[in-house]
Write a structure and sequence with these properties.
There is one protein chain. The chain is built from four helices and no strands. 8% of the residues are buried. Helix content is 66%, strand content 0%. The N and C termini lie far apart (46 Å). The protein has one domain. The protein is mostly helical and 79 residues long.
């Protein structure tokens, strides 16, 4: 690939990214689950399924005292 072509691709990607800023959209169910799972891995070192199992079992003592637990809980898939 030539340098000019790479530059055009980068410029196009930057234009698309800036156009996406400010747009509000809806995540698909699969995308919502991936986002939640990534957050659970990143903040708590566990899968999203493990987090939900522990959350429902009441294994998080005072989750309001732990910002990471609150953050992941707010991203939990609804429904």
């Amino acid at each position: 690939m030539t340098q000019a072509r790479r530059a055009r691709r980068r410029a196009k990607a930057a234009t698309q990214a800036s156009a996406a800023i400010g747009r509000i959209g809806r995540l698909s169910g699969a995308a919502e689950e991936r986002l939640f799972d990534r957050a659970a891995h990143h903040y708590l070192g566990m899968s999203g399924q493990d987090f939900l199992r522990k959350w429902r079992a009441g294994e998080f003592m005072n989750p309001d005292a732990h910002p990471a637990v609150r953050h992941v809980a707010m991203l939990a898939p609804v429904g």
